[in-house]
Amino acid sequence: MRILLLDDSVKHRRAGVKQLQALGHEVVALSDYGEARKRCETEHFDVALLDLLMPAEPTTLGDEARKEFVGREIAIGFPLVLDISRRNIGKIAVVTDMNHHNHPMSAAVDWFRGATLLVNGAEVSIIHAPLCEDGSKDWGMVLAQIAS
Amino acid sequence: MKPTLYIQINGQGYSQGGSPLAKAIEVVSDTFGAEVVGDLVRGDVEAMIAVTNTMESALHMVKETETTTIVLASFYQRDQESAETFAARYPDRIIAVAFVGEGDAELVPTLLKVIADKAKED
């Protein structure tokens, strides 16, 4: 499968590339959600694995908003699902390693409890990340969860 | 070993010879004892220092690396406040300075200090 992996953490991206390539998949690993949106417009992905919380990017923001928001973590995974699910991606997972006691958007992930949602024809899962021993996200496990 | 330093100056893309500002930073950095490199990350090896002039690039750099110290140098005073607020979100990673400012709060003295600190770490 061709997999889009979007995460702002080097550690999680490196782990994902290694794990998913070992399973025989082609992985496009990105750190910018703006770039991910563009790539989804022009390229086909079978699966998208998205971080929930990522730093806000400056694109289109005015001066005051740039000062207020750029670099601040926002729950971009949720609107990204609505956007890229229009691009014929079969399965999408929003995956966070943020403890649900530490961030309201991570706490909101509890609401879904492993349910599979249908969004614009894509099967969407919103989940807390299973972790490897080194603390990196276990993307292979995530893929197995959404494939089952 | 010399600290490695990567330069990305945006909006200065001259068709021949690249950005003169980047060239100037390269000369200064070399004089201060850094080795200027062409890639932010090569394989798993990150440049120890990166210099850029936009928040876009600095944010990208902070996400693409784990340990690189990023020096965000603003051309204009009006950008400085936003750059400092942004840099404060990554206190161990990003230093916001003016290209030309007052005292140590400008690029060249900052670069000198960062290169010296990295050389000591190494």
Which characteristics define this entry?
heterodimer; A: 148 residues; alpha/beta; Rossmann fold; 6-stranded mixed β-sheet; two-stranded antiparallel ribbon; 24% strand; B: 122 residues; 5-stranded parallel β-sheet; 7 strands; globular
Description:
The complex is a heterodimer of chains A (148) and B (122). Chain A is of the alpha/beta class. Chain A has one domain (2-147): Response regulator (Rossmann fold, 3-Layer(aba) Sandwich), CATH 3.40.50. Chain A is built from six helices and eight strands; from the N terminus they run βαβαββαβαβαββα. The longest helix of chain A has 13 residues, at 10-22. Chain A is globular. The mean pLDDT of chain A is 95. Chain B has 122 residues and is an alpha/beta fold. Chain B has one domain (4-121): Rossmann fold (3-Layer(aba) Sandwich). In chain B, 40% of the residues lie in helices and 22% in strands. Chain B contains four helices and seven strands, in the order βαββββαβαβα. In chain B, the strands form two sheets. A five-stranded parallel β-sheet of chain B has the order 2-1-5-6-7, with helices on both faces. In chain B, strands 3-4 form a two-stranded antiparallel ribbon. In chain B, strand 6, helix 3 and strand 7 (94-98) form a beta-alpha-beta unit. The A-B interface holds A 8-11, 14, 31-32, 55, 57-59, 63, 66-68, 70-72 and B 44, 55-56, 59-60, 62-66, 78, 81-82, 85-86, 89-90.
